[in-house]
Amino acid sequence: MPRPTTNPKILLTTAYRHSKNDYYDAIGANFVRTPRFAIPRTVASGLRFIKQNVPDIEIMEYPLWHEFTAKLAEGWDVVGFSFFQHDIGEVLEMAAEARRQGVKEIWAGGYGALDSIAEEFADRVFYGYSEEQLLAELFGRKLDRLRHPPLVWPLNINLPPAIPYKKLGIVNTQRGCPYRCTFCQTPVHAPHPSRIPLESIEEIIRYYRSVGINEVWIIDETFYTFPSHSKAVIDMLARYDMHWKPMTRADLCLEHLDSWVDRGMVMVSVGVESVNNEILAKIGKRTNIELMQEFRRRTIEKKVFVLAYYMLGYEENTYESILRDIEVIRKNLWFDLFQLTVMTPYPRTPLWYDLESRYGIFERDYHKFDARHLVWNHPNISPRQMDKLLRMAMAHLNIPMRNYIKGLIGLGQRRIHQKGFGFLWDDVARPFLHSLRYNERKQVSLPRLEKKP
Ligand code: B12
Fold first, then answer.
1. Does the CB atom of residue 276 touch ligand 1 within 6 A?
2. Whose CA is nearest to atom 24 of ligand 1?
């Protein structure tokens, strides 16, 4: 793209909300019982990263329709959309409205842009992480250091009503993933893993501390891909006295469990995906059930809360085999919380090409690509049966006093042991009071880290 002589006016936004509280909640969607956790998606990580590093661009996260149209009326050279697959329906409506209001150039980016429809409605499609490209192409500048924006998620407890419990600081320490699981889009989106500079990570941890946040979630695809970098991050988290939760692999976590717990890890999330070793081998997961059982045993011992990702609906599955697997989990692998999804082929993954060619992907409603619906012609299970299986799995695997509340009590015991009843202030009252005060929807720009003399 030729560099424009004057700075173009660029607005990047996300799918719109249908009503005030219509924030997608991928965690809350895993429960049929109460109390339950909720993490409404109120901030758009990709757009915050762009804004932090390319400040001349304006961003708008999850607007209501009337907010979006009012914004369009301000006049823009470019309107770009950041979206997931299941947001495409809303984005198509928004792009049409932008064209109607005279916007000449529409952009698409994020994971949803891997769908071929992006080429149809957008003039430009961006693949993968884009800060450097945007800065160079639009403003002829080089990125001296990728900076990490403030990314804060609300963690609520729904009794109901929804009680704001705490605000979590989100940290990305690296991008991409060296593993090649057949269902995952990351190898297409970011095929070459890279590190986020340690200086930027320290900047963001210091920011979280300064605004009263004491828990961070590391949402890397696979934390500890770069061991020496990750070790430095862990030391930093310990130095700032943070509680932290990485998203990683069970084998990596098992190997480092003692030292991670000593440095403040309280929770971990890992992909279990299946309780069948043949399926695990077939999807390229490179784990097995024996390893998972050992991981479970050790995390119980260390009182670490485990969020397990689990997929239903492999080609080999039948209605009955899924019910049997649920029982296997309850007996041998009952983690503290399950994020349950239905295996969904996403564009350009090996799984997508395979299922499309052999069975066909029938679903045309993009909303159903939220990993909670059967979207392809499964040989043994119908979409209705899959809905029922998903609900049954939730009902049998996420039970307050059998796992997730019990897991929290375990965490509380560990904290009492460390801090005495000071934990009531540090872990309960203070996060709650802070949660009422901090508005994560407000865009804040991060001050530069002052170098120590
Ligand atoms: C954090 C996360 C979440 C969070 C989202 C929080 C939030 N506020 O966004 C939670 C836990 C809620 C979540 C839930 C789900 N997630 Co998720 N999630 C991720 C994860 C781990 C990180 C996303 C992220 O923040 N990346 C960091 C930012 C900086 O990167 P980015 O968003 O890609 O943005 C960069 C570029 O894409 C680009 N860019 C982005 N948009 C645009 C737009 C324009 C115009 C331009 C120029 C550039 C550009 O520039 C950005 C900066 O470099 C990814 C895997 C991954 N590592 O990316 C999966 C992932 C995105 N999730 C996925 C899925 C399937 C889901 C769920 C549907 C699963 C489920 N059923 O529970 C839900 C749906 C959530 C939803 N509706 O938003 C899939 C997406 C598949 C797809 N095509 O839709 C992924 C890729 C996981 C996977 N490997 O399969 N998720």
1. no
2. 45
